[in-house]
């Protein structure tokens, strides 16, 4: 609760204390000082959850590419490109602030790895990169013809780096959950999915790149597809295990409290994106196989292999779409039971709504094209429009909240003036992970 002092009281306080900020004396700080204050605050606020913004915005950019009506029209591609550059700018800013925070305050990195909530969101970093990769390939390289072969291979190299980070987030993240953190079923949240979904999202980008890479090298495209198949197999297997636990947690302990109920939408991410990734794998295997340099491999050299894999992958994609639809209906019922009955304050966790719903809409559109289903195309397009509206409303609310975030009179500004110890993340993280709503709101710092 903020206490407003009368002007006479403020004047008496400023005269008696030499350390009072110059703004209280009526002097306007220089632009450079204001800039440094804001930069310091944003650095202290840097949190892995910020990259959920990149994931959400990237999924919207991809929806403009996949939208079934006006598909690949110049207007759609320009809209996708505009969102790409916005997303790239935000990614660079968030990465710079995060790098500065963990470089200046290395203790905060150690605290982050022990935190059972915030550490889960480290996976949003590589997943944000994959959304940038997809648009770079489909819009910049293929539609606008920028860079040709060299640019495509540059993106391919970035993808391998992203794969390495995703693998690290998955194995190291799950290992840290086992040996370094404390978790319990009663406080379990769908955010447990985040470390393992990194593999699924990376595999989908591999399918996008391989689709165009085979034009230059069938061998490189096949290697990309095989490794992508490995990634999505491991990621989906772990995700389904966690989803089973999560459903049991919901049945036994009920819905997460407050805004945490929004995490019920997170299962749409692994199911929807895995379906999209597997569909791309089947589509690409159909084009590449039989592989003429298969050597003694009867599997790769058989003429029917590609067709069979395409049919199997398409069926698997539809099964995963059905599973995602089930979770979507559960999530809507959860909203009806909780959020719609009470006012929920805006928090950064709202961004977690965009990506899962975006990839679900994308898979719906892709299957509509595969089955030549008018109903699926209409449903996918309508769902995509709803997701775009959700993204727009959350983005506007985030911009409006930015003023409170950089308010020089809030607690974080006081920390920025030199109290280094208070800027560290808590060395005693909470025991549970149900509070997935990592919030940056009105001067509060949830790390």
From TrEMBL:
A Pfam family reported for this protein in Swiss-Prot or TrEMBL: SLAC1
Record field: compositional bias (Polar residues): 419-436
Gene Ontology cellular-component terms listed: plasma membrane
Main location: membrane
Keywords: Cell membrane, Membrane, Transmembrane, Transmembrane helix, Transport
Listed InterPro entries: SLAC1/Mae1/Ssu1/TehA, Sulfite_efflux_TDT, Voltage-dep_anion_channel_sf
Region span, Disordered: 418-447
UniProt topology in membrane: Multi-pass membrane protein
Family: Belongs to the tellurite-resistance/dicarboxylate transporter (TDT) family.
Protein name (database record): Sulfite efflux pump SSU1
Species: Ephemerocybe angulata
Top-level taxonomy: Eukaryota, Fungi, Dikarya, Basidiomycota, Agaricomycotina
């Amino acid at each position: 609760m903020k206490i407003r002092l009368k002007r006479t009281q403020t004047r008496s306080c400023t005269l008696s204390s030499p350390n009072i900020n110059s703004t209280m004396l009526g002097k306007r700080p220089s632009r450079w000082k204001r800039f440094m204050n804001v930069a310091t605050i944003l650095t202290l606020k840097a949190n892995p959850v910020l990259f959920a913004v990149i994931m959400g915005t990237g999924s919207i950019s991809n929806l403009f590419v996949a939208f079934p009506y006006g598909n690949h029209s110049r207007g759609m591609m320009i809209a996708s490109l505009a969102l790409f550059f916005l997303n790239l700018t935000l990614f660079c800013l968030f990465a710079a602030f995060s790098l500065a925070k963990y470089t200046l305050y290395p203790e905060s990195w150690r605290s982050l790895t022990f935190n059972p909530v915030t550490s889960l969101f480290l996976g949003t970093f590589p997943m944000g990169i994959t959304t940038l990769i997809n648009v770079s390939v489909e819009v910049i390289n293929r539609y606008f013809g920028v860079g040709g072969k060299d640019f495509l291979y540059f993106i391919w190299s970035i993808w391998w780096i992203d794969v390495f980070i995703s693998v690290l987030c998955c194995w190291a993240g799950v290992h840290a959950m086992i040996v370094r953190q404390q978790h319990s079923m009663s406080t379990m949240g769908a955010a447990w999915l985040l470390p393992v979904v990194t593999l699924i999202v990376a595999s989908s980008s591999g399918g996008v790149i391989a689709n165009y890479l085979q034009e230059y090298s069938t061998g490189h495209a096949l290697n990309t597809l095989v490794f992508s198949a490995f990634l999505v197999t491991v990621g989906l297997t772990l995700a389904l295990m966690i989803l089973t636990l999560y459903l049991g947690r919901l049945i036994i302990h009920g819905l997460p409290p407050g805004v945490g109920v929004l995490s019920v939408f997170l299962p749409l991410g692994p199911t929807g994106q895995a379906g999209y990734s597997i569909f791309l794998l089947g589509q690409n295997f159909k084009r590449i196989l039989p592989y003429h340099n298969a050597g003694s491999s009867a599997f790769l050299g058989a003429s029917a292999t590609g067709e069979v894999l395409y049919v199997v992958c398409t069926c698997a994609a539809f099964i995963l779409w059905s599973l995602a639809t089930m979770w979507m209906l559960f999530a809507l019922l959860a909203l009806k039971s909780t959020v719609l009955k009470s006012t929920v304050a805006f928090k950064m966790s709202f961004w977690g709504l965009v990506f899962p719903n975006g990839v679900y809409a994308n898979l719906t559109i892709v299957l509509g094209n595969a089955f030549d289903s008018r109903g699926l195309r209409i449903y996918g397009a309508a769902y995509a429009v709803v997701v775009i509206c959700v993204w727009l409303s959350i983005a506007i609310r985030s911009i409006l909240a930015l003023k409170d975030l950089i308010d020089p009179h809030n607690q974080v500004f006081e920390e920025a003036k030199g109290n280094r110890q208070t800027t560290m993340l808590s060395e005693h993280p909470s025991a549970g992970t149900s509070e997935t709503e990592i919030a940056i709101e009105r001067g509060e710092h949830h790390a």
